[in-house]
Amino acid sequence: MAGELDLVLERTLNAPRDLVWRAWTDPELLKQWFAPKPYLISELEMDLQPGGIFRIRMTGPDGFDTGHGNAGCVLEVIDGEKLIWTSALGPQYRPAEMGEGCESFPMTAIVTLADAPGGKTLYRAVALHKDKADRDQHEAMGFQDGWGTCAAQLEELAAGLKAEA
């Protein structure tokens, strides 16, 4: 399914799918894992319906700041299974302005979850790009390390939710 313009991260997370989904869709939980520590999500807006907003502002101790964060657009939500959003469009499918740094190129993210043996979750995140230059820029910015670190943080948080359940 992934093409040459895509970056793909796949992991089997040691947490049940419903709790991984909860960690993805509850804004207060998403803030806890979506930025590789010591970076953090300082602002977040999510309206998980087609045309809804998906906006994240990430900051770091080194002065890194995505600014107010470009407002992306939710494209598809299948409860417990799939979340798709894009930075190419803003809320209500309006064409988006690109910013700087990690917001300087449009991308579409497809996150899918599936049950894995032993109460685990098969987690797949795909970042689609319009051309090789954008893909290469995203990869050079540390896609695998950054999204991989976030997946580990997601797993830890979801497993903790399991322990509390």
UniProtKB/TrEMBL annotation:
The chain positions of domain Activator of Hsp90 ATPase homologue 1/2-like C-terminal read: 14-158
InterPro entries per the UniProt record, alphabetical: ASHA1/2-like_C, START-like_dom_sf
Q: Which Pfam family name is an example for this entry?
A: AHSA1
**Belongs to which family?**
Belongs to the AHA1 family.
Its name, as the record gives it, is SRPBCC family protein
